[in-house]
Specification:
With 400 residues, the chain is mainly beta. It has 2 domains: 176 residues, Immunoglobulin-like (Sandwich), CATH 2.60.40; 159 residues, Sulfite Oxidase, Chain A, domain 2 (Alpha-Beta Complex). The chain is built from 4 helices and 26 strands. The strands form 7 sheets. The chain has a 5-stranded mixed β-sheet. Strands 10, 11, 14, 15 and 16 form a 5-stranded antiparallel β-sheet that branches. A hairpin with a 2-residue loop joins β5 and β6. The protein is globular. It starts with a strand and ends with a strand. The N terminus is likely disordered. It binds ligand MTE and molybdenum atom. Ligand MTE binds next to β7. The site of molybdenum atom has 6 residues, from loops.
Length: 400
């Protein structure tokens, strides 16, 4: 067992022991915590009390992370281990009591209308497998102290969503208005009266092109979308970061400008550490190529082991995954296995290895269909968004 070391981030007991790995560039990189322990809150919140508490790291009642080894090997992440991230308290259970009665306003089309979920179900249907990954997934791997949950790998899951393609709804309502450049979705949480709407509202704009693949989903992994995940109706924008997948969606507008909500104007903007958020900085829209090992992640017996994990390419299919057991000095191509659920789903990869007693630094590096290779390290950015570097996504495994 590695020496346990408590790092500056209060949540982690780390098996890294303060060791360093030598990356491909020959530069020694300290390994950040790979495995979170401890829960900050004892209980699952009421709206998620059906989840598996042993699979989730509980930061708050609104932020629950899937443990690295709990994602499983079934491609699709089971609902009871799927992470949760809510910016605001979800609506009450009454919202999902009669899902077909939930209403959504469609604006910025030739014939704007309010439609119920029941009506949407008659307009069209499609199913898409896609990853929901929080922009802050991997925040715990950065050195700088950024606000927000110090997620490691588990603010991500892959689900199968069923709903109506947004383009079918748009077609039904006569097409988008000429001026439309963005698709803007608004969450249905109640906003406390004393608070300014734009300060807290979950409203996100994505480029209009994203509409082509987006669906308004009422089903997740074959069940009505649970309240915890945005039921009765959720905007699903395949290949885009979690925040763009607006839960409890109440309004979809095809707009000339981006939303004036704080989370659009200054939030979810990538900028250097210390700089304020502004509309001219890149928005957290399309995800980047990324992978990580989910087994083994700590200790292992000597002999044969199947090293496996998940890999994805954001909006591109993942084409190749390489695995290293020596911190990135040498690589071997892993086998991509399991059903291909489409370009927005993740793929499982596996590499058998014969491990003798010793210490290993195991990591993976994905390549997408466009030849984009997962980065070795992720430059610090103010809000510590999406750490995707294979250096710190590595795990230290002691084999004895
Ligand atoms: N209405 C609404 N939609 C939302 C959020 C929210 O707080 N309210 N959180 C967003 C964020 S930041 C993420 S990462 C994902 C999380 O989805 P999940 O809780 O289903 O895993 O939902 C997004 N959609
Ligand atoms: Mo998020």
């Amino acid at each position: 067992m590695n020496e346990m070391l408590r790092l500056h981030r209060r949540h982690f007991l780390v098996g890294a022991g303060g060791t360093a790995i030598v990356g491909a560039t020959g530069v020694s990189v300290p390994i950040a915590p790979a495995i979170a322990e401890d829960n900050d809150v004892a209980e699952l919140p009421d709206y998620a009390d059906w989840k598996d508490p042993t699979a989730l790291i509980r930061y708050t009642g609104l932020t629950l992370e899937t443990r690295r080894d709990a994602i499983g090997t079934g491609v699709v992440t089971p609902l009871d281990v799927f992470f949760i991230r809510n910016n605001l308290n979800p609506p009450g259970e009454a919202a999902v009591a009669d899902p077909d009665a939930w209403e959504v306003e469609i604006e910025g089309v030739a014939e704007p209308r309010t439609l119920t979920v029941g009506e949407l179900k008659r307009i069209g249907m499609d199913t898409v497998a896609t990853i929901v990954q929080c922009s802050g997934n991997g925040r715990g791997f950065f050195d700088h102290e950024a606000s927000g949950s110090p997620w490691l790998t588990g603010a991500a899951g892959c689900a199968v969503w069923t709903g109506v393609p947004v383009r079918d709804v748009v077609e039904e309502l006569g097409g988008v208005v000429d001026a439309a450049r963005f698709m803007t979705s608004t969450g249905g949480e109640e906003i406390p009266e004393e608070v300014e709407r734009d300060e807290v509202i979950v409203e996100r704009s994505v480029p209009l092109e994203a509409m082509e693949n987006a669906i308004l989903a009422w089903e997740m992994n074959g069940e009505p979308v649970p309240l915890a995940h945005g039921g009765p109706l959720r905007m699903v924008v395949p290949g885009y970061y979690g925040i763009n997948n607006v839960k409890y969606v109440r309004r979809v507008a095809f707009t000339e400008a981006e939303s004036t909500a704080n989370i659009q104007v200054s939030g979810y903007r990538v900028r250097p550490v210390g700089e304020s958020g502004a509309p001219d900085q890149p928005s957290m829209w399309e995800m980047k190529v990324k992978s990580w090992v989910t087994h083994p992640i700590m200790n292992n017996a000597t002999g044969r082991v199947q090293i496996y994990g998940v890999a994805f390419g954001g909006t591109n299919p993942v084409e190749r995954v390489d695995v290293s057991i020596d911190g990135g000095q040498t690589w071997e191509e892993a086998r991509i296995i399991g059903p291909d659920l489409g370009r927005y789903a993740w793929r499982l990869f596996v590499l058998p290895a014969e491990l003798e007693a010793g210490d290993y630094t195991i990591t993976s590096r994905a390549t997408d269909s466009e030849g984009n290779v997962q980065e070795e390290t992720t430059e610090p950015n103010h809000r510590a968004y999406d750490y995707a570097g294979w250096d710190r996504l590595a795990v230290n495994v002691t084999v004895s």
